[in-house]
Every structure is written in C-alpha cells, then in structure tokens.
Amino acid sequence: MSRPKKIDCCTGQPATSKQEAILAAAQTVFLESGYAAASMDAVAALANVSKATIYAHFSSKRALFEEMIGARCSVAFAPLPLPECYSDARQALYEMAEHFVSLLMAPEALALHRVIMGESPRLPEVGEAFYSVGPVRAIQRLTALLSDLARRGLLALDEAEMPLAIDLFTGMLKGDMHLRAVLGVPPKPGMTPQRLAAGAADMFMARYGVK
C-alpha cells in the first residue's frame, strides 16, 4: 500500500521534498540577508535546486516569503490551547500567554522580527505579508479562545469589547521583555515568560473575569 502524501501546512496541497528544501533555504536567506538583499539565486543554491524549480512552486519572491512565514506560523500556533479543553478561564489564558511569549522569544522569531522592522519602512509589502500570515493567525486563535470562554460564561466579555480585550492582552505579552530581546539587551532580573504570562492572565481576569 502506498504511503499517504504529506500535506503542506500552508497551502493544503501535497508537499514535496523540494518544496520543503526551498522553504528551509528561504528562511535562512531571508533571516541572514533581509528581504531586499535576499536573492532567489541564493535560495536556489542553498536548496540545491534551479530558479526555475523555485518559480514552479512560488510565483514570486513575496509569495515565497509569505509561504515561509505562513509555514512557520502554522506549526508554531498549532499547539496553542484549544478552547473546549478548559473550564478555568484563568488557566486557559495563562497557557495561551505562556505559549505566545515563548514563540515571541524564540531566536528565529526574534531574527524574523528584526528583518520585518528593518525592511517594512522601505518595503511596506514585507510588513503586509508578515502581518497577514503572522499576527493575524495569533489574533484568530486568541479570539476563538476568548469567544468560547465568554460564550460559556467564564468571562464577562462581549463582542463589542473583543478588539480592545485582544489589544490589551497581546500588549501585555509583547512589552519590555520582548523589546529587550529584539535589541539584545539582557532581561530584567527574575523576569521569565512564565511570570509574564501569569501576570497578564491575572490582570486580564481582573478586568474581564466573572464577578
């Protein structure tokens, strides 16, 4: 019996070893060179394929960049807590927050963040591409969690308040600790992803917890 084909996590189409090699090479080249300086020739050389092969899978440099980010985000956000697994809102928020902070603080994520911030003022399409497949997916998962907890009466949060609630929660998680890591500045003594996640969950519950 033949083995089932592996499905690409972004496109939903059967993945190939060449496709995977191209995405891995693209990540290395984009993170090392930046978007503007990255060349398809460099990606082709690192992936050991021709440029024609790259364009057979990806229509443009931006399409390759978006696919690379999308693949990373699909894998990264897959383990986030599922709303239906929880009856304790604070615990669900803590686990979501801890995982989110750990993702933000990963070395590759920090390197990608530096690339995006450096390139987007000159190349807005880089920022747009990243936002559409990066932060948007995180917001979707968080929205699903908060909506489910509110629906089950575990949070006092309505749809009109949802955008503000999401901004407040993510803002607490992407603060000074993340900025220090991006800049290469040592973290404050005693500050850890777990401590930050616990504080964010507690403050969120103080505002939106059921009294």
How does this structure look, described?
By secondary structure, the protein is mostly helical. It has 2 domains: about 15-60, Arc Repressor Mutant, subunit A (Orthogonal Bundle), CATH 1.10.10.60; about 80-210, Tetracycline Repressor, domain 2 (Orthogonal Bundle). Helix content is about 65%, strand content about 0%. The chain is built from 11 helices and no strands. Helix 9 runs antiparallel to helix 11. The chain is elongated, with a radius of gyration of 19 Å. The chain starts with 16 loop residues before the first helix and ends with a helix.
Secondary structure topology:
Layout: H1 17-33, H2 40-47, H3 51-57, H4 61-77, H5 89-105, H6 107-119, H7 124-133, H8 135-151, H9 162-173, H10 176-183, H11 193-208
Helix pairs in contact: 1-2, 1-4, 4-7, 5-8, 5-11, 9-11
Shape: elongated
**What share of the residues does DSSP label as strand, in percent?**
under 5%
Question: Which sequence of SSEs, written as H and E, runs from N to C?
Answer: HHHHHHHHHHH
Helix content: 55-70%
What are the main properties of this structure?
single chain, 2 domains, Tetracycline Repressor, domain 2, Arc Repressor Mutant, subunit A, 211 residues, disordered N terminus, mainly alpha
Please summarize what this structure is.
The protein has 211 residues and is mainly α. It is 67% helix and 0% strand.
